[in-house]
Amino acid sequence: MKQIRKYNRARSGQRCGAAVVEFALVVPIMLTFTFGLIETSRISMVKEAIIQASREGARVGVRPTADAADVQTRVTEELSLLDLNSATVEVTPTVLEQAKPGDEVRVRITIPMGDISWVSGFFDYVSSGIVAETVMRRESTG
To answer: CA angle, corner 79, sides to 84 and 60, nearest 5?
Structure first.
């Protein structure tokens, strides 16, 4: 009977070592998947936020009394909700007051990928940034 107990103790000690090795092999893979999921979710969230900000900027820009500074202010307000301060905003035409009713107003927002990553340096992104663009027609005054 003592031999069986001795054998089980020796066997469980070997099994414990195998579990440690399995754990050491699986943890890096699981951490990579976890951080990849976090980064992908963050990119998706930022993409939706800048799409929304470009729409809001274009809505402001199509009003007859709007100017480019109004558009810039509205876009900045929307992006500040997620603390996205490094965005580049382009409004076309640059002088909205000269745009006629029916002319296109284009709002384009670009954010570099390095500025939105929560796990900086963990993934090497090929893309230069996230871009969103909205085009609407200028409203008439009457």
So the answer is: 150
Output the six-digit token pair for 114: 């390095």
Give me the chain's average pLDDT, please. 84
With tokens 């809505």, the residue in question is 59
What's the token pair of residue 122? Answer: 């963990």
- pTM confidence score: 0.75
Q: Please, where are the H alpha helices in 1-142? A: 2-61, 68-80
Sequence spans of domains, the chain = 2-137
Residues 6+ positions from 83 with CB-CB distance below 8 Å:
none
DSSP H or E segment with residue 133: strand 129-137
Cα gap 4→62, rounded to integer Å: 85
